[in-house]
Write a structure and sequence with these properties.
Layout: H1 2-24, H2 28-31, H3 43-56, H4 61-77, H5 83-87, H6 89-100, H7 103-120, H8 126-149
Length: 153
């Protein structure tokens, strides 16, 4: 019975933790840029705290770098030509997270997919899609940097 209760407790904390981070995430960071505060929320401060949270949950720098490497590859080839590759980031990330199976990976996926949606929703407007993609890269890069600062292995 203790195991069952502990499992439920851990699941509830995992859900609450994810909910907390999703509430703290602001879509405007992707749609308008990281440089401004939106609703009193600062993207760089979020990236700092989020990077620390996923590092504490044993999400490795290598896991982020694999995803980030794919994003950079898309950037180098040109987002205009690589829209399909960008859209495929979502299922690729979900698959990688499922294989990894840890709380940090799950949390990373949930927040990054919210940022991904903010880019994806304007895929028919090339200029806006490109601008949001750049903001997405900046956001991801900030999380990666702070993850490493906070001891991400």
């Amino acid at each position: 019975m203790n195991t069952f209760n502990k499992k439920n407790f851990d699941q509830k904390n995992k859900e609450d933790n994810t909910k907390h981070w999703l509430e703290q995430f602001t879509k405007d960071w992707i749609t308008k840029g990281l440089g401004e505060k939106f609703n009193g929320k600062d993207a760089i401060d979020f990236a700092d705290k989020f990077g620390e949270a996923i590092a504490d949950q044993k999400f490795t720098t290598n896991q982020i770098r694999n995803f980030f490497g794919e994003v950079r590859r898309i950037e180098m080839k040109g987002i205009e030509k690589e829209k399909t590759a960008f859209l495929l980031l979502q299922p690729k990330l979900s698959y990688a997270v499922k294989r990894q199976g840890n709380k940090g990976a799950d949390l990373f996926e949930k927040v990054i997919l919210e940022a991904h949606k903010a880019v994806k929703e304007v895929q028919n407007d090339t200029a806006e899609f490109t601008r949001r993609f750049k903001n997405f890269i900046d956001f991801l890069e900030a999380i990666l940097a702070y993850h490493k600062v906070h001891g991400g292995k």
